[in-house]
Prior knowledge:
Elements: E1 2-3, E2 9-11, E3 14-16, E4 23-27, E5 34-36, E6 39-41, E7 50-54, E8 65-67, E9 70-72, E10 76-79, E11 86-88, E12 91-92, E13 95-97, E14 103-105, E15 108-111, E16 124-126, E17 129-130, E18 140-141, E19 152-153
Parallel strand pairs: 2-5, 3-6, 4-7, 5-8, 6-9, 7-10, 8-11, 9-12, 10-15, 11-16, 12-17, 15-18, 17-19
Antiparallel strand pairs: 1-2, 13-14
Amino acid sequence: GVQTCALPIFQGCYFQGRTGSLQAILNNGGSGCKILGNTFAYLNTATTGAAILGVTYTAIPSGWEIANNIFHSNLRHLSMTMRQSCVHHNTFQSIGLKPDNTALTATVVCDVYTGSDGNGQYNTVTGNIMQGDYSNVRGYKTATSDNWVGNITNDIAASGQVADNGWTILPPA
């Protein structure tokens, strides 16, 4: 369940969407949030479905920890410009299901840099399982100052960013 404390913590929750669902977590600039050990599923409403979505245009969230979560069958898993935050040990599925049980390819898998230069920066994204095409085009988006070393992906064709054994060695291009 949801715990109340000085910093927002969402831990051990199952967020399941349904027809017309928008977002599980919507942030408009809040910092220091912890999203730990949750499952985000079926937030796949066309154009609006998202597990974690940031919509701020002025206050960039900082100090977030998003860890040990499972993301599947969402239109967007994580789409939020962040600063000095850590996204680690999550499972990001690139393929899931639409409400009619046909295949859904997530349009945004892990995007910690949705804004312009100087906004999201200095994030650590590590230890995650990142399914699908490890590239900006397929929804893995990063600032040049972010550290994306040590994730596991099945996209060993991303030469220069991924080692032959599937470990990421550079941010996605």
